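sanity check this chain:
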Amino acid sequence: MEAPPLAAVDCTNLVLSRLPETEYQALRPDLEFFPTPAKTVLFHRDEEITHIYFPLSGCHSVLAVMQNGAAVEVGTIGNEGLSTVDVLTGSTVATETTVCQIPSDNLRIPTAQFKRALENNPELRHLSYRFLQGYLSHISQSVACNRLHSTEERFARWILASEDRVGANEFPLTQEYLADMLGVHRPSVSVIARRFQQAGLLDYRRGVVTVLDRRGLEAAACECYAEVKKQFARVLGKPLG
């Protein structure tokens, strides 16, 4: 089993990496290395929050699940922050279901220890709430994006955001998950992915996406990708990706 990084500066999670070394070392004994394979459910809606997760890589997807089982992504969290922000509002239960959509490594901490650390470590508290500000901006932008922008634009945005969080141009991703993320039927994802492949922007086969032309994807994406990235850079002092 791996251990948390010895120093804050070595941590790939942006919140933890920006902690003063004294605060990070105070937190480190309570941090546990915890890998999450794809489809791992971190939180179920209306169930108790037992741990807070700091992704080091990969993506956590916050899903709104309907009574008929249909789901749509309402938020994405990667190494820029923590899952779940509900605890920062004082909640003890999860508002939505959170699933690991791309395999990730994480550091996690029991909820009680995290709450105690927020009280004792002022910079952890400051950075966590700064992330919350960025996350809320991301949610607001996503609402507008889902209403105003085409599926193709949102597809490009989502691939770019995933690449930023993974830190590599190749990552596993099923069409089923893409359909949930975009709120469309799976055949629509197949058609869009084929168009992007034919344009030379990416390769998508056997559940693995390879970004071939990042600039082309940025041109194909809606304005929301750059706006969300700008907001996180502003609140965290460091850009994603």
